[in-house]
Amino acid sequence: MRERITLVHRPESGIDPDALTLDKSGLKAPSSIEAVREDRLTVTLDTLTHELAQLLQDFDVLRVRWASPVRHQTLEPFSSRLSPGLHVSYTPSSSETPHDPSRLCAFLRALGPLDCMSHEAFTISGSPDKPDYYFYQPMLDIEAISRAFETDLCRGHESCRTRAGELKTAASVDFTFDKGTEVSKLSALWPLSEQQVDFVADPSHRVEVGILTRGEPPSLGRHDVGMSGLLAVLGERKTPSPTLFKFASRHRTAAAHFTSRFLAPTGLHPTLQISLDGAGGGRPPSSSSSEEDGDGDGDGDGACKPYAFLTLPKTIFADRYQLDDQLFLASKNLTAARHMSHPVDLEAPAYTTTTWGSNLLVEMAAPGSDGWTVEVPLHLRYLEPSATGERDVAVPYPVVFWACERAAEGTALADNPFDRTGLGYDQLFSPDTVFWHVEPRPAHGAATADIVNHIAVPVLREEAASWVGAGTAAVVSLGFAWVLWKLATLYASVGYKAGAGDDKKRQ
């Protein structure tokens, strides 16, 4: 097992190297530092529980990710974003179609109640011979995830158990497995906040610590992120080593932020409003003004265009036919619906829908010099009755970014030691696309710091449900009786006239 701890701070809030104490026991500093922190544990299959190791053999790739619903601030190179909730994606190692996800779902239920036991709960993308399965469920509490990792991933490793317990305050948690490397990785990210510099060496595995900030190494390219700072291997070195390096980054931070809310009144056809604030909506620095019309190449780059990637639970959906109307889209500051996952049943109520929900990628019209607003039309499904006559529908904030396709052509983005892939939206673009992420913030006047929108949906009261059923049966019965009566009356009248006509002919 290998452990890597990274602190990234602003240049103005550094730490004095002479104040650090590095010895066989670990690394300490007398004071905390405002920084973003990432912990990553890399473990082989033989260090996992037998049950988990056997389960992982079913997959070529498995990714289980959780993102916090609480707004947080981060620094590069930790710029990538996900909508709040639990995201599960995998590529099965077997060609069996459809793949049975029940073993995986049974294991994941340690994280909480999940509706994923059948393959119909997953959306499928990719090629038929190598399908990718995806499942999402809103999950606001991370304590169950912390307990599950502590039990199943950290068998016998006290340092790992301690790290897993600290996940309760994390902004995001990733568990990934790649059969090609036969290793699994647990990564956790803590937002920009005060972090204690007190890391303990573990004789059972290698522990690397980096305290870094933005740097300016020679020949820094337009897609490169430069880092400088100190590196230490706990228990092996007596002094931290200074470092200066660079790497091309797939995910960058745009100089803007956005808010999201549903326009009132919502009704059964709510409109999601996305408002961007910042110069040019956070247009990437290398973009030229001609890209507003999609014609420019951004100083040699591919055209950078703004997108929103929506993760919609089964209670709400977008109508692909409505989003095919170009005039309608233009009135909403949208350019096109670039992707919608399958299947999406436009008629079924939520309580009969087996699929988790759907993803929607919309291209937004390029903003002017100031911020601007777009609107995405959505539709609610019919929900089950409740005791109060209302049900709460939680819809996570979308991921908003500028995508610069072909921007890093010929650049080794995968060489980034902090690279993050398989996020759902990145597979919809070319592999050399660079994403400039816009920071989500709660809407002005929001009661909480959550980046989740809520809709109070009126439904039938439970006490009235039986009356509605009985009333419906009575109305149907009366209607059926009325139809039979009308048919009998008509038959009697027509039959009598036909009989009278036959008598006249015989006479």
Automatic annotation (TrEMBL):
Which protein are we looking at? Protein PBN1
Q: What is its main location?
A: endoplasmic reticulum
Keyword Glycoprotein: yes or no? yes
GO MF entry, a single one: mannosyltransferase activity
Q: Which family does it belong to?
A: Belongs to the PIGX family.
Q: Where is this region: Disordered?
A: 273-302
Function, as annotated: Required for proper folding and/or the stability of a subset of proteins in the endoplasmic reticulum. Component of glycosylphosphatidylinositol-mannosyltransferase 1 which transfers the first of the 4 mannoses in the GPI-anchor precursors during GPI-anchor biosynthesis. Probably acts by stabilizing the mannosyltransferase GPI14.
For this record, the Gene Ontology CC terms, alphabetical, are: endoplasmic reticulum membrane; glycosylphosphatidylinositol-mannosyltransferase I complex
Pathway in which this enzyme or protein is active: Glycolipid biosynthesis; glycosylphosphatidylinositol-anchor biosynthesis
Q: Name one GO biological process term.
A: GPI anchor biosynthetic process
Q: Which compartments is it annotated to reside in?
A: Endoplasmic reticulum membrane
- Supply the InterPro entries for this chain: Pbn1, PIG-X/PBN1
Can you tell me where the transmembrane regions are? none
What is the source species?
Geosmithia morbida
Matching entries from Pfam families are given as: PIG-X (PF08320)
- Keyword list, A-Z: Endoplasmic reticulum, Glycoprotein, GPI-anchor biosynthesis, Membrane, Transmembrane, Transmembrane helix
Membrane topology per record: Single-pass membrane protein; Single-pass type III membrane protein
Ranges of compositional bias, category Acidic residues: 290-300
Key word Endoplasmic reticulum present:
yes
